[in-house]
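Researcher: Structure prediction, please.
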Amino acid sequence: MSNILSKVTAALLAVLLLYFFPSMQTAKRQDDVALLTSYRQIEQFVDAVRNKGYITPEMYSEFESELGAYFSGYEIEMEHRHKKYHPEYGDPADSSTFLGQYSVQYDAYYNNTIMEALFPASNQTAAPDQIQDRKYLLSAGDYFDVRVTPAESTASSILNRFLYGNGLKEIQVPLIYGGMVLNEDY
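Model: Predicted structure follows.
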């Protein structure tokens, strides 16, 4: 009886090692390649925005379609922090007591504001020349960040759930890239 049990166990282990483990490693490698390539697309988009100082509908649509080649579902979050300088006064009621220094504050704008500027709801049937004129402008010294979070399960996460059961939580790691706007090319 123990001879049969050891043969069955050896056969199951052989199947696991010969088929399941290599397919899991291949799926992980494909996920890594997709993440690296997607991160490179994010870098290219953010660097183009930082160097030009604006976003056009064409730039965003091209970025979105390039991400769609690697992820079947994803969420894009953009953040624009606009730098403002505010003079500091000794007495808030008296504007003549300027202290000779400025404080820096940032106004943050997110997806809703940026997408409304790029694709306004009131202008759905615009002519192609009007679409090309739309730009979301940024100023030199502002900060622009993009966060992309894959929304759906990958092949390696499905294989992990199969191997480890439902107890293993799937964590979607966002891809984040950003920096200071360097130029105003408009």
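Model: The beta strands are 54-55, 74-91, 94-109, 136-137, 143-150, 175-180.
Researcher: Thanks, that helps.
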